[in-house]
Specification:
The protein has 79 residues and is an all-alpha fold. It is 77% helix and 0% strand. It contains 2 helices and no strands. The longest helix has 34 residues.
Length: 79
Protein backbone atom coordinates (compact mmCIF):
# COMPACT_ATOMS: atom_id res chain seq x y z
CA UNK A 1 0.00 0.00 0.00
CA UNK A 2 2.83 2.39 0.84
CA UNK A 3 4.55 1.71 -2.49
CA UNK A 4 1.38 2.56 -4.43
CA UNK A 5 0.97 5.75 -2.43
CA UNK A 6 4.65 6.63 -2.97
CA UNK A 7 4.12 6.29 -6.73
CA UNK A 8 0.73 8.05 -6.91
CA UNK A 9 1.74 11.24 -5.07
CA UNK A 10 4.60 12.24 -7.45
CA UNK A 11 2.58 11.25 -10.52
CA UNK A 12 -0.32 13.38 -9.33
CA UNK A 13 2.03 16.30 -8.70
CA UNK A 14 3.55 15.99 -12.20
CA UNK A 15 0.15 15.80 -13.90
CA UNK A 16 -1.14 18.76 -11.89
CA UNK A 17 1.97 20.76 -12.74
CA UNK A 18 1.51 19.99 -16.43
CA UNK A 19 -2.09 21.22 -16.38
CA UNK A 20 -1.10 24.38 -14.49
CA UNK A 21 1.73 25.08 -16.95
CA UNK A 22 -0.55 24.64 -19.97
CA UNK A 23 -3.28 26.82 -18.46
CA UNK A 24 -0.80 29.62 -17.68
CA UNK A 25 0.64 29.32 -21.20
CA UNK A 26 -2.85 29.52 -22.71
CA UNK A 27 -3.76 32.49 -20.51
CA UNK A 28 -0.61 34.41 -21.44
CA UNK A 29 -1.13 33.73 -25.13
CA UNK A 30 -4.78 34.82 -24.82
CA UNK A 31 -3.64 38.03 -23.13
CA UNK A 32 -1.04 38.75 -25.85
CA UNK A 33 -3.59 38.14 -28.59
CA UNK A 34 -6.01 40.57 -26.92
CA UNK A 35 -3.22 43.16 -26.59
CA UNK A 36 -2.48 42.89 -30.33
CA UNK A 37 -6.22 43.10 -31.09
CA UNK A 38 -6.35 39.60 -32.55
CA UNK A 39 -9.15 37.12 -32.03
CA UNK A 40 -8.07 34.84 -29.15
CA UNK A 41 -7.90 31.14 -29.93
CA UNK A 42 -8.01 28.13 -27.65
CA UNK A 43 -5.79 26.00 -29.90
CA UNK A 44 -2.59 24.63 -28.42
CA UNK A 45 0.00 23.30 -30.84
CA UNK A 46 0.79 19.65 -30.47
CA UNK A 47 4.44 19.36 -29.35
CA UNK A 48 4.69 15.90 -30.90
CA UNK A 49 4.22 17.40 -34.39
CA UNK A 50 7.43 19.41 -33.96
CA UNK A 51 9.40 16.27 -33.11
CA UNK A 52 7.88 14.34 -36.03
CA UNK A 53 8.69 17.20 -38.43
CA UNK A 54 12.27 17.36 -37.15
CA UNK A 55 12.73 13.61 -37.64
CA UNK A 56 11.27 13.83 -41.16
CA UNK A 57 13.62 16.70 -42.02
CA UNK A 58 16.64 14.73 -40.76
CA UNK A 59 15.57 11.69 -42.78
CA UNK A 60 15.20 13.87 -45.89
CA UNK A 61 18.68 15.34 -45.29
CA UNK A 62 20.15 11.83 -44.94
CA UNK A 63 18.43 10.73 -48.13
CA UNK A 64 19.75 13.78 -50.00
CA UNK A 65 23.26 13.11 -48.69
CA UNK A 66 23.02 9.48 -49.81
CA UNK A 67 21.83 10.51 -53.27
CA UNK A 68 24.64 13.04 -53.59
CA UNK A 69 27.20 10.48 -52.37
CA UNK A 70 25.94 7.92 -54.86
CA UNK A 71 25.98 10.47 -57.67
CA UNK A 72 29.55 11.53 -56.89
CA UNK A 73 31.02 8.13 -56.02
CA UNK A 74 28.80 5.73 -57.96
CA UNK A 75 26.63 2.94 -56.60
CA UNK A 76 27.85 1.19 -53.42
CA UNK A 77 28.33 -2.16 -55.26
CA UNK A 78 30.92 -0.68 -57.65
CA UNK A 79 33.20 0.65 -54.91
Amino acid sequence: MIIILAICIPVTAIVTGFFVLKSVQLGLRWQMQMKHEEKPTMEIQNPINEVVNTVKEKQAEKEQANILNEWLNGPPESR
